[in-house]
Amino acid sequence: MFKLTSVSLALVLLLGGCAVTRVDPPAPAKPPAQFKEDALWQPAVAAEPAPEAWWQLFKDPVLDELEQRLVIGNENLKVSASQVASALATVTASHAALLPTLSASLGGTRNRNAVSGNGGQAVANGSNPSNSVNLGLTAGWEIDLWDRLGQAADAARADYQASRGDLAAARLSAQALLAQTYFSLRSAELQAALLDRSVAAYQRSLDLTRARFDSGVAARTDVLQAETQVNTTRAQALEAKTQRATYEHALAVLLGESPSTFALAPAEALPGAPELPAFLPSTLLERRPDIGAARARVVAAYLQIGVADAAFFPAIDLAATGGWRHSSMSQLISAPNLVWSLGATLTQTILDGGQHQLASAQARASADAATATYRQTVLTALQEVEDNLVQADHLATEATLQDQARAAAAANLDLTMDQYRAGTVSYLNVVTAQTALLQAEQSLLTVQSNRLTALDTLLKNIAGRW
């Protein structure tokens, strides 16, 4: 028996040396050397390296303070952090599966048996009730001959890395969303202030028109046009203030606070637009946490193939028990009462209805899906950065052109007002010039805000670093 067991064990070990269950994942996707739209972005001055707190590039102390509060209070980030903690616990448990198990037991029983008498009747045993006390240790260990447990531990570690990437991606997205919401709030705030100033200017024009009407110089239609313009602009101002309040409520929720307890003081200008470098290597995408998480899931999926394939091979379990058994607790631990056993079990599934084949096929399908998801994540990241480069460049040019349009509209309004006072043009010309100036100023604010949002999104899409 010993020789047969030794030969069997040696054969199993030999097969284990030949079995290969680990499947290597495909190589990481190789991005191009640089972005296609790099040529569009040529700032006049060299850009400074981005700080780790990348939002500081906008040079807004209020935004800096809000970003610091975000990491502490945002509830979605707390959910992601708890998922990382759960993944870490899974890693610890998977490593524990590689180690032997040991358990202790202490038990006692008291019983009295019955014996059969004449005629098959059960009669009480004449002896007294008996006691039995057991104290023992049980050890077990699965020999990881085919690296099933080792690959499961490696897969758990890869899943943990993916969950950390998810947390970093969620934090980066929340930071970018907060900055974007903050820019929108400041834009709505300045739009409201612009409309309030326009209302005041239109009211002065209305007063002038009424005076001219009372003196018989202006027509009644001029007064009605002026009143229409004042009231329409007042309504627009209320709408801008409503938007500003809505963005303020959104900021409060991002910070994990109640909107009723959160308020921001008004500002006089938008944050500054940072200068980006003239060349952005596409290797910056390797720092994106969502790409790192997708790649880690590819590694974990291919490790699960090895785990599934290892189930085709036999499992070897070693077991050992030892302890003492006696009828009295006081005399339990002594050499005559010692009991023990050692053994090994070799288990091989013969028929399982194709369950192992199914598990292996599913693992391979999951690995293919994870690989495709990873490659799509890389392609989407490349597209996002290319889009942001175009937007940032075009919006910078658009802001310059819109500022020139605003200056021309302001000069045209001054000239038209002089002509109206001189009586050479109707009030309709004044309304047209005032409307053109207001629209130019509103468009300039919108373009400036959109440029800040595009830069914020670009910084997020290159992981806030270059």
- What's the order of the H and E elements? HHHEEEEHHHEEHH
How can the largest sheet be summarized? Answer: 4 strands, antiparallel
Counting DSSP H or I runs of 4 or more residues, the number of helices is: 8
Class by SSE composition: alpha+beta
What CATH architecture of the domain at 19-58 and 73-98 and 137-173 and 258-321 and 363-461 do you see? Up-down Bundle
Low-confidence stretches: 1-5, 7-12, 38-48
Classify the fold: give the CATH topology of the domain at 19-58 and 73-98 and 137-173 and 258-321 and 363-461.
Outer membrane efflux proteins (OEP)
Shape label:
elongated
Mean of pLDDT: 84
How far is it from the N-terminal to the C-terminal residue, by CA? 69 Å
The number of strands is: 6
Widest sheet, order of strands: 1-4-5-6
CATH class of the domain at 19-58 and 73-98 and 137-173 and 258-321 and 363-461: Mainly Alpha
Tell me the name of the CATH homologous superfamily of the domain at 19-58 and 73-98 and 137-173 and 258-321 and 363-461: Outer membrane efflux proteins (OEP)
Q: Percent of residues in beta strands?
A: 5-15%
CA-atom Rg in angstroms: 39 Å
Roughly how much helix do the residues carry, as a percent range?
Answer: 55-70%
